[in-house]
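Before a computer can learn anything about folding, someone has to put a protein's shape into writing. The outcome of that step, for a single protein, is printed below:
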Amino acid sequence: MSRCHFYRRVCDLPATVDPPHIGRIIMKAEHVWALILPDHLGRAVKTYMQQHGSDIGPILSHPRSNRWTLLVRPDIPDDVHLFAELFRLNVSVVRTGGTVALPSPVDTGAQFRRWIEPPRCAFRPSGLTVVDAIRACAGPYRPVRRRAADA
């Protein structure tokens, strides 16, 4: 419970223990959203943002699935083309109503969730800033948009 209180009070993350008898900590996406991406892309995005003077926010790792979750401000527009672009890059957006599992004391060992960049305050980067970094880092893997005339 103390970890959950820290997440809520210091980090402004809407965390709850669910279910209480297991001790898993979850966060319902409300005023905090998340971008979930392959760990290799997450590493590149983190480095890119640091090299370009962008503050990074909380990042967690899911070692068993080789995925990273970046917690962001909820400013990503509801745009089908953007979501399709991110889907092709194996990136998903956890929007309002979604759930994100956060590291908890019951997550022992390296096989469960762990913080790459732990939350220290209420700061989260803009979701659009992170999307721009994802686009920059996707490099040759970035899908080419076709104009309607080319299709």
Observations:
- The mean pLDDT is 89.
